[in-house]
Structures are given as C-alpha cells and as structure tokens.
Records
---
Amino acid sequence: MTPSARLSAAIDLLSAMEETPQRPADALANAFFRERRYIGGGDRRAISARVWRILRHWRRLQWWIERVDMHPTPRLLALAMMAVEPLGRENPDDLFTGERYAPLGLTGPERRLYDQLRDREMTHPDMPRAVALEVPDWLLPRLERTFGEGLEAELAAMEGEATLDLRVNLLKSDRPTARAALEAEGIAAQDTTLSPWGLRLAGRQPVTSCAAFRSGMVEIQDEGSQLVVAAVGARPGMRVLDYCAGAAGKTLGMAMTMENRGHIVACDVSEPRLEGAVRRLRRAGVHNAERHLLVSGDRWARRRSGSFDRVLVDAPCTGTGTWRRNPDARLRLREQDLLELTAKQADIMDRAAALVRPGGRMVYATCSVLREENGDQITAFLARNPAFSLVTPDGVHDDLPPGLAQAGQVCLTPRQHHTDGFFAAIMQRDS
Ligand SMILES: C[S@@+](CC[C@H](N)C(=O)[O-])C[C@H]1O[C@@H](n2cnc3c(N)ncnc32)[C@H](O)[C@@H]1O
C-alpha cells in the first residue's frame, strides 16, 4: 500500500470506531482487517499504529479542532495529529492527494487548521485538566483520589505503549532455556525484574507463530498478571479455585505453581470464555484443571462450600490498569459502568468467600487502579466478613518479591512497576 492508502485506511478504521463507540477498538480493528484480507501485515501494523496514536491523544485533538469551530471528524483528527506530532517527516500534501486510494485533497479550512496546529505542543494551558489528561470528566476526581500528587506522572505512564511479556511455563521449560529457544527464533527477550517466571520482549514480535509458544513453553501474560498468580501462592496438592477464570490466563499460571498436582477448577459465567481455555490448557500441558460454568441456582458451589485452600477472584473491572493497551477504553468508560461493576465485585467476592476453607486464602484482584474497585472493596468486604483478615507481610508467599505486598495488598502501576495496573489483596479465612 502507498502511504496515502494507509492513511485512508486509518481514517476508515477511525470512522468505523466512531460509528460503534461502545465496541472495543481492538475488536473493531480485527473485524476491519478480516474484511480486507488484501491488507498485508506491514500495512496493518502501520495503519493500527496511526489509529492508536490518535486514540491516545483523542480528547486533546478534539479540543484543538473544536477551538477553531470545526467538527472533529476522523479525517480532521488524523490531520491534526499530523500537524502536532508528525510521524517522521510526513507532509499532508503528499498524503491527502485525492488520487486513487488516497484521501481527498485538503480544503481551504483544513489547510488553515493544519497551519494553525503545526508544531504546537499537544497540551495547552487553557485545556480543562480532564482533557489534558485524556480522561472522562466524571473520572478525574476519582483518579485524583487514587493518585493524589502523582496523578500526572501516573497517567503519563498509562499513555505509553504496553510491553509484551511472556510467562515461562515451568511445566515444560525454565527461564534460561525458554529465553534461548526464543532467541534461536530471532526473538530477543530479557528476564522480568519482579515476576520470577517472566520474559520481556524487545518491542512487538510475532510470538504466537514461534515454536516456543506453540509448544506451550511460554504463554503471553503481562508481568502484573503473573504477580497476581504469585500472590495466590497455589502449591502442589492444594485445592484451588479460579472463580472468574475467563480463558484461564491465571489458571495456567496457578497450575504451574502447583506443578500439575492437586486440583484446580476454572469457573466463569461465560461459556465462550471458558471454551477458550481448552486449547490453552492443552498447549501448556496442564492435567489437574477442570472447567465449570457457573449458572444461577447452581448447587455446585453450595456443595463445595468451605473446601478450597486458595480462591482467586480476578474480578470483572473497569480495566483502567490496561489503558496502555486499550486507550479507547477510557473514552468509553461511563460512571454507570463503575457503579455496576463495584456492586458486582462485592457480590462475587461474597459468593467466592463461602468456598474458602478455614485457614485458606482468598485473593481478590483487578486490573484497575481505582480505589473504588480495590482498597475500598476490601475495606467493605472485611467489615461484612469478620472471619477474614489481610495476611501479614511474613505470611505473603515466596513467589512475590519482598516488599511488594504492603499490608497484604499489592498495587502495581505502569509508572512504578512497568507493568499493567493491577491490584491484589491477600486475605486469610481465620475460622
Ligand atoms: C478480569 S476477567 C478474568 C480474566 C482471567 N482470569 C484471566 O486471567 O485471563 C473477569 C471474568 O469474570 C467473569 N465474570 C463476570 N461475572 C461473573 C460472576 N458473577 N461470577 C464469576 N465470573 C464472572 C467474566 O466473564 C470474565 O471472564
């Protein structure tokens, strides 16, 4: 594709996103490229890179465009992005040519917009704080409460690009062997500093097509997510429950720390998600896991009341910790979503707690940074459930680096830990 055809496709993809604003951008991009099989891998990456840059600067670009009384269409957002932060030496006259497969030539007002914005700082002192920080207005006070004075720096880190991390599957390999196998296939990786099983890749690399991945030696998993697995401390012979298992990302990690011994149950209310676990469990060589679909009125949970050594609640959440990967998610998030999610989280935690045996532990985790979904939930849960308490630092498991858990809670952020934002609270059932 020519550079201008790539730009045209990026504008089309942005238009598709604008038409269905509640649909996640990555799902839309997948569908967009599936319908256009003629777009090759290199072109796809270039088109996505442009779109994701625009998504990361969305509110500020809109502000600039509206300031000159224009409507922020996908075409203008692409033009404004080019003016403020060009990719290399791109010149709009070389791209907006009107030729075949290229966007139409610039109109007079568009050219004036470009000239006004050219080489400006993206952030302007007159911008409202929520616009400058690229967050919804309603969310700003909650983020201020969470981060206090560190807010700007934390959000700046959440605007960056996410790393690509792998978890080495100790059921099949060890870290030096897996690293060497990847390197033999041209994929450079470094040991992660916090997770004992992690490898961090240098940039985006085609991992899923390499033999180390296909043979189950490594699994794609953010370092933060690996640390949630570490917080559970599932050990050989235990009975472990992954209550919100989805496609078993953390089940796989816990089966690994259990050395395939004992029993682990992956539950979820979503059948398609649990279905997605089958292939992954097989590839990883996990033999001690079963899947269970939770349905209302199910006796399954009642019969297993008080029987698990470890219960992980990887709760549905706003995903504010994963904004590096899904910058569009912050634009889609509504206050109502947060209210519904916090109610659901409390309900799930209470149900899951009934399954923990006396002396056992429940780990509540989210990939959110918001206090409402994290510390506040724990405070309220402990008040409702006096049989539970946060584990003391010396009771935290060895797989976690020393000092990472503070008073039984782990709070990870992209700025401080170079992981996705994650929260985990480790609670013990005393009686
Ligand atoms: C954060 S995701 C889990 C991700 C997964 N643990 C992993 O590591 O890949 C949250 C999951 O909770 C599930 N869920 C939503 N409501 C639930 C409920 N009431 N009980 C159990 N699971 C629920 C969702 O279907 C979703 O798969």
---
Amino acid sequence: MADQYTWGLILGAVLGLVAVYNLGLLALYNLVMRSKSEDNGADSLRKTPTTALNGECPFDADVIVVGAGVAGAALANTLAKDGRRVHVIERDLSEPDRIVGELLQPGGYLKLIELGLEDCVEQIDAQRVFGYALFKDGNRTQISYPLEKFHSDVAGRGFHNGRFVQRLREKAASLPNVRLEQGTVTSLLEEKGTIKGVQYKTKAGEELTAYAPLTIVCDGCFSNLRRSLCNPKVDVPSCFVGLVLENCNLPFENHGHVVLADPSPILFYPISSNEVRCLVDIPGQKVPSISNGEMANYLKTVVAPQIPREIFHSFVAAVDGGNIKTMPNRSMPAAPYPTPGALLMGDAFNMRHPLTGGGMTVALSDIVILRNLLRHLSNLNDAPALCNYLESFYTLRKPVASTINTLAGALYQVFSASPDEARKEMRQACFDYLSLGGIFSSGPVSLLSGLNPRPLILVFHFFAVAIYGVGRILLPFPSPYRFWIGARIITSASGIIFPIMKAEGLRQMFFPATVPAYYYQAPPSN
Ligand SMILES: Cc1cc2nc3c(=O)[nH]c(=O)nc-3n(C[C@H](O)[C@H](O)[C@H](O)COP(=O)(O)OP(=O)(O)OC[C@H]3O[C@@H](n4cnc5c(N)ncnc54)[C@H](O)[C@@H]3O)c2cc1C
C-alpha cells in the first residue's frame, strides 16, 4: 500500500511537472530576452586600465599564471604539458593549512583524469568517498554516487587541501617549461586595453614585471586583481566553522554526512585515515568569538545536540581541543569583462556556496574547456584569435558551471531551517524525495557530484521535489489551507531557483548555442 501511495504521488508529481515545465518555458523565454538585453549592456561596465605601459613588451613566457592554488597549479600543469612556457607567481609556496577544498567530487576526479593529474590525490592519505548520508530529525538516509558505469578508481576524494595543492605544485615545478616563483602580484600591466603582463614583488621584496600574451588570474576568493577583469558581485550568505574530529568512525564509512540542522546544515567527511572534517554553517557574516569562548559554547550547546550520536564525543573533544577555524562562504556569479590578454579562473572568477563541495570541480572543468580551446591556437600572440577563444570559453563553461553553482545556492536555502511553513515542507519533501532511492536520489546526486551536471535535469528534480511536497500536503485530505501551503511551496521553489539561474545567465546556461561567442573558434593557426 505504502508503495502504491508513493508511486501515485510520483505520477502526480511528473504530470504536474509537465504543466509547470510548459509554463516554465514561457517564463524562461521572457527571462532569456531580458538577459539578452542585459548582456548587451555589459560593455558599458568595462573598466579603465590598471597600469599604463609605454613601449614594446618583451614576452618572457607564453602564459603568466597568478596564484598556485588548486586552479592555478592545475592550469600550469595543463598548459605546460601542451608545450606552453608558463610563469607561475604564487604568494606563498609553503603548504596551505585551510578548511577549504577538502572534498573533491567524483566529477572533479574525472576532470583530474582528463588533465592527467589523478596521481596528485595519491600519497596524501586521501580517502575515497562513495556518496552521502543525510540526517534529519533523528532519521537518516544513504545516497550513493551513481558510479556503476565508471572505472573502479572513480569516486570522490577527501584530503587535506594543502597536501593536494603541494602535489599539484610539485608536479608543475617538475616540468622544464614551468617557472614557479614565490611573489605577490600587485597589478596587471595594460596597454591600449590589452593585458600585457603583471607587476609583482618577489620574496626578497624586489619589484619586477613579467610579460606574456596571456595572463590567467587565479588568486582565489579574496582576489585583489579581479576588479579590472569582471564585475564582482560577492554575496556572503554564511560562514563555515571548521573542526577536525580525530580517530572517529563516521556512521557511514567513506561517505559525506549532511545534517539538516537548525539553523543550517552541518557537514562531516573524511580527510585522512584518522581525521574527519566537520564544517558547521552559521548564517550571516558574524560568528561567535573564538577567543572569548562564545564559539565553543555555541558548538556545545546548539550544534552538538543535533549531530549523530556516534560522533557526539569526538565532536565535543574537537571543540575542547580548540583548533577552530572559520571561513566566509562566498558566492559570486561569473561576470567577466572580456579583456584581450587576460582571463580569470577558479574562485577569482566564480564562486558558489561550498555546501555541495563543487568549487574544485568547476575550476577543473573550466581548465579542461580552456585547454581544449587553446589547443587550436599554437600562437598566443595572435590577439584577435585568442580573444575569440576566451569569449567562447565564457559561454562553453556555462552549462556545467552554472548547474553546479545553482544547485549549491538552491540546496543551501532548502536545507536551512526556516519558520515559514512552505519552506519547512520543502525541506522535508527534499529529504523524503532523496530517501526514495532510484532515480530520485541518483538524479540529484549525479548533479551534485559533477557526474552529470545538466541544467534541465536540475530544473526537473528541483520542481519534482516541490510537486512531491505539494502531493504530500494535499493527500489524503486536501483542505483550502493545504492548497494554500501547496501553492506557496511552488512559489517558494521558484523564488529560490530562478533568481540564482538568472544571475548565472539563463541564456548561456540553457541555450549556449544561441550565443554568438559559442561559435567564436578561430581556424587552427600554424
Ligand atoms: C569553507 C569552504 C569550504 C570549501 N570546501 C570545498 C570542498 O570541499 N570541495 C570543493 O571542491 N570546493 C570547496 N570549496 C571551494 C574551493 O576551496 C575553491 O573553489 C578552490 O580552492 C578554488 O581554487 P583557487 O585556485 O581558485 O583558489 P585558492 O585555492 O584559494 O588559491 C589561490 C592562490 O592564489 C594565491 N594568491 C592570492 N593572491 C595572490 C597574489 N596577489 N599574487 C600571487 N599569488 C596570490 C594564494 O596564495 C593561493 O595559493 C570550499 C570553499 C570554502 C570557503
């Protein structure tokens, strides 16, 4: 009986979705038209030069890469392997110790394989991750990544970010055509609207300039250099508080754990054979003070009672250990000013809420797209052709990057607690929908994992969850109040997802082939 009931709901959900989809297409058409007119207006935002330079530019390298984090170091490897001379300038070459970029989704691992960098997750005690476990109000459900059709090696990886970054850097530095130098880039050198290189300060304090036909800025989420290359609209919806739990067994081995807590989600995942990363989300930009003990008190009194009982003691021990770090969670849609001679990559270019651990996957996917484009262009001094390729890159990356970005923003809102009845229902519907298994869990998790990040599949599952939530409310005894809540679930779902997709750029996300830059791929040069 229970099964028939569930399937009845699902059938209703699918039929409802077809109707919603038709309406959605109409709405999309209007929004696409609006985003088109916004695209046309982007030129007026172009900024004035950062630094004027007179005379000829002697080119030291084919490409300058600013920053050797995940994006910069992977990019340097990739371009150098294609024969480019790459000059990487990194502010601090010592091993980073951060709470970011510690779970690489399987889709990101596939990109590492495409780039020939999969060995960089070896010898760092990285842990395989096969899916997620979700916890809500004492209930739990397991969601596996759909990995059946991939090689047995393909899975997520949890690791220390610094160890992974050092492996990428070492690998890049071992290539004869890479020059990896410690230094801080202070400005971009511009001449007649074209970026010709960078000005930087070496470790010894010397001010130097470096020139190349292409400068790729990968200076991360706090980027100082992005301002002249894009229109940065940074939002900080929340902060993560990071702890490390030692020698603790997670309830679901080799899985990420997401607790749908109040006020917002708590994450756990393995980062080595004896360490588990815990990230506690705190909405807003202010967190309790660590120094005066407010943070420890908050973690023990508000957070600890909500976490799975199996890891309660390890969590409290980690709080008592005192190694607590915080980091703002930023999101920023990509809004580049196409600039000859320069490109942004990684978090400098585009950010999303880290709830879904999508940042490294987007960065690696972008690198694959750029590498494939630039392979057609042997001479980077061919400025018009290079410019066309860079504009193509902005369009070609959109379907994958925007799907991962939109999912992260939408899921963060759905997974956070809310006093609003419709939002509460949506949150419960999401948990129950994912618990159904089959396509209802594999579809959404294939988006999240980067294994199949497609915009239409995202919209389909998002509204299927909403319609499932409406069905749960209306059956078996609909009432006017329940109809009202049902309607509010749909409007609330639309209110969550459409603004994020609009900011991502609906036209490039859903119809990239209608954007002229999609076809800007100059014929191969000699
Ligand atoms: C709390 C949190 C948790 C996250 N968790 C995950 C996760 O689990 N999985 C995931 O995929 N993503 C995660 N992310 C996102 C992920 O960390 C980023 O997408 C990824 O690190 C971006 O790499 P990047 O190379 O662009 O930036 P970074 O890794 O930050 O590298 C930037 C580099 O540039 C250098 N630099 C900066 N300025 C200069 C300068 N002026 N000159 C020279 N060098 C400079 C820095 O020293 C640094 O090495 C998380 C983000 C946050 C905030």
